[in-house]
Amino acid sequence: MSEVAAIGGESILLPFRAMGVKVFPAQDSREAEELLRDLVSREPPFAVILVTEDLARNIMPGIREMARGGGVAISFIPGSGGSLGLGRERMRALVRRAIGTDL
Fold first, then answer.
1. What is the pLDDT, as a whole number, of residue 80?
2. Is residue 94 within 8 Å of residue 76, measured between CB atoms?
3. Which residues pair with 6 in a beta bridge?
4. By the 8 A CB rule, do 75 and 90 touch?
5. End-to-end CA distance of the chain
6. For the chain, what is the total number of helices (H) and then of strands (E)?
7. How far apart are CA 21 and CA 44, in angstroms?
8. Which residues pair with 82 in a beta bridge?
9. Alpha helix ranges (H) inside 1-103
10. Closest C-alpha to 48, from 11, 10, 93, 90
11. In angstroms, rounded to a whole number, what is the distance separating the alpha carbons of residues 14 and 40?
């Protein structure tokens, strides 16, 4: 069975844990990137890895590199400060690439 993982601040992750998501608390972007690299390389791999936007915004080059492999879907969720729009922008880019136009 494919699993979902989430990386972010501990308080943001509590509802995800209750839904059966494997949670990995991170205090800062550096720690989040280390966790993400570890999770992407695990066997069997996670199907989806969610990262809070506040942590993801500082490690976007690493996220793009890890997402190129195609084995894991990396997506963003709002952090404690609310949405930064990263999830929406990523989805728009994926749709643009898939169908050749912006929605």
1. 76
2. no
3. 23, 50
4. yes
5. 32
6. 5, 4
7. 15
8. 79
9. 10-18, 29-40, 53-56, 60-67, 86-99
10. 90
11. 22
Residue 31 carries which side chain, given as an amino acid letter? E
- Those residues whose C-beta lies under 8 Å from the C-beta of residue 11, and which sit 6 or more positions away, are 80
Question: Would you say how long the chain is, in residues?
Answer: 103
Structure tokens that stand for 78 in this block: 């709002």
- The architecture in CATH of the region 4-99 reads 3-Layer(aba) Sandwich (3.40)
* Residue 55: predicted pLDDT: 94
Residues 69-81 as b or e (16 or more Cβ within 10 Å = b): eeebebbbbbbee
Residue pLDDT tens, the chain, 103 long: 458 999 999 989 999 998 999 999 999 999 999 999 999 988 887 888 999 999 999 998 998 888 887 778 888 888 877 777 776 776 676 666 666 666 5
Do residues 8 and 51 make contact, with C-beta atoms less than 8 angstroms apart?
yes
Say what the pTM is. 0.81
What pLDDT is stored for residue 103 in this prediction?
59
Domain range annotation of the chain? 4-99
